[in-house]
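One-letter codes give the sequence; the integers encode the fold. A sample entry reads:
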Amino acid sequence: MEVLKRLDEFEKFLNQRAKMVDAALDFYLPRENDYPGKIHQAMRYSTLAGGKRLRPVMVMESAKLFGLPFEKVLPTACGIEMIHTYSLIHDDLPVMDNDDFRRGKPTCHRVFGDAVALLAGDALLTHAFSVIARNSDIDGISPLAVIDVIKRVSKDAGSNGMVGGQTVDIESTGVSIDKETLLYIDRHKTGCMICASLWSGARLAEAPAQDLKVMDDYGEKIGLIFQIVDDILDINGDEKLLGKPTGSDVKNHKNTFPSVLGFQESLEMVEKLSQEAKDLVSRFDNNEFFIQLVDFLQSRSY
């Protein structure tokens, strides 16, 4: 009962942070009536459609862990969320996963058409770096740190990161793969932007190199936890809670942790990764958010 209470309180905390992120996203996104209005409406439709805002909250809490007020990193947090949203818009397109719903609403291409959805994703990706660059205007933030963040985020979002993982995922669809290939896919497709979020907040706070490495290692582990649980939820999750159809991995002949490793080994891997992630951040004072984040990701049902 105590664990459930703690997770409930953690989720309330996430919701509070998400409201701050939503307000900042609304500020940093183009106005929907700015010409050409259709593209800006599509960008706002998908970005402001809701969600836990885990990546921007990770940026904020990582900065706070190393002594920087979390409000100061909102531009970077929002930029990373825009990159995440662009990837979702493109993932949902008919040439990718061909999904009709995202976060309980019709996907961008179902509302605006394939071409505008494709361009909305492109626009969010490019606009994101303009927003991240605005962090150099915030008092107490080193412009050199912002440059480092832009370098890191662009790498982790690109062909050596998220896009690389998506590419191998597409190439592996309908083909039997081994555990190492599956780990490559998910460390890049999902894990890279989680690592970039944690690293960026810490870098803007001028964390020392050894602590940046710890946040990277922690991010890799929780990225895998996130993906394994996501794969499990695609099998037995509640569509109403998830806000998207289940069974899409089977429909699209995707390789997942349960299909490659088996259900039981997948669960055991989550347990092992969870303990390792907690051990990594145990060196820090005020690590409650990062400990509870592991529990939340491990036990989430949506």
Strands lie at 101-102, 105-106. Residues 209-236 form the longest helix (28 residues). The mean pLDDT is 92.
